[in-house]
Amino acid sequence: MSSFDYDVIVCGVGTAGQTAAAFAAKRGARVLAVDIASGIGGNTGRSTGQMSAAGTRLQKERDIHDTPDLHYDDIMRISHGTADATMVRLAVDNAADTMHWLLDNELELLPEMPVIFKGHEPYQIARTYWGPDRGGKPLQKVLGTQFMKAVESGGVTLMLETEVEDLVQEADGRVGGVVLKAKDGE
After folding, report:
1. Confidence at residue 1, expressed as pLDDT on a 0 to 100 scale
2. CB of 105 within 8 A of CB of 47?
3. Could you report the per-residue pLDDT of 130-151, keeping only the tens digit for each?
4. Residue 22 main-chain phi, psi, to 5 deg
5. pLDDT at res. 41
6. pLDDT at residue 47, rounded to an integer
7. Spatial contact of 33 and 158, defined as CB atoms under 8 Å apart
C-alpha cells in the first residue's frame, strides 16, 4: 500500500471540487483531486447551468438595481423561510464576485442575460444567467480549463477512476486522510 502527503484532498471533481482544487493549488497547497468517474466535471454537463447573482456588472449595464440583500430576501421568500440563512447569506454575498470571475475567464452567456426565470417561483428582479445551450457546458468549460491548468502545472495531482473507500480520522476527530482504491484494485 502506498502513502502520499498532501495539504488538501478533494473528493470529486465536479463544479465544487474543480474549483476547490484549483484555488487551493493557486495558493500553494499540494492538492490531490480524486474522482470515481473516468473524466472531470461530475454532473455539471447535465445540469441546467443556471446561476443567480445580484449586483453584477451585467445588471448595471442594463440599469437593473439589485443587491445581495434583495437577493437574500427573494431566496427566503421563495423558500418560505426554510433555506439555511447562513448559507444563503454566504452565497448571495459572493455571487457577483463569482459571476465576474467566471466572465473574466470567458464564461459564455446568452446576450439577454440576466433574466427573470419562470421555471420555478421567480425572483422579483432579473438575476438569473445561463449559457447558449441552457446547460452546464459553458460553466464546465471555464471550470475545467482552470482545473486542468492546475493539473498541468503540477499544482494538482489528479486520480480518476479511483474510489474513496474510507476517511482516516485523527485522534481529535479531524479527517486527516483518505483510503483510496484505484480501478486496478490497488
Report:
1. 53
2. no
3. 999 768 888 889 999 999 999 9
4. -65, -45
5. 87
6. 82
7. yes
CA-closest candidate to residue 116, choices 60, 68, 71, 57:
71
Three-state DSSP class for 98?
Answer: helix
Which tens digits make up the pLDDT trace of 9-29? 999 999 999 999 999 999 999
Ranges in the chain, pLDDT < 50: none
Angle at 95 between CA 94 and CA 99, to 5 degrees: 120
Please name the amino acid found at residue 24: A
Residue located via cell numbers 453584477: 56
Question: Cβ distance 164 to 178 under 8 Å?
Answer: yes
Q: What is the DSSP letter of 37?
A: S
User: Cell 459571476, residue?
Assistant: 99
* Residues 6 or more apart whose Cβ sits within 8 Å of residue 138: 49, 107, 108, 109, 130, 131, 132
Using the structure block, give the residue that is written with the C-alpha cell 473507500: 165
Q: Pull the grid cell for residue 5.
A: 502527503
* Residue 121 vs residues 46, 48, 53, 93: alpha-carbon distances, Å: 22, 16, 16, 21
How far is CA 142 from each of CA 14, 63, 122, 164, rounded to the nearest angstrom?
A: 12, 27, 27, 26
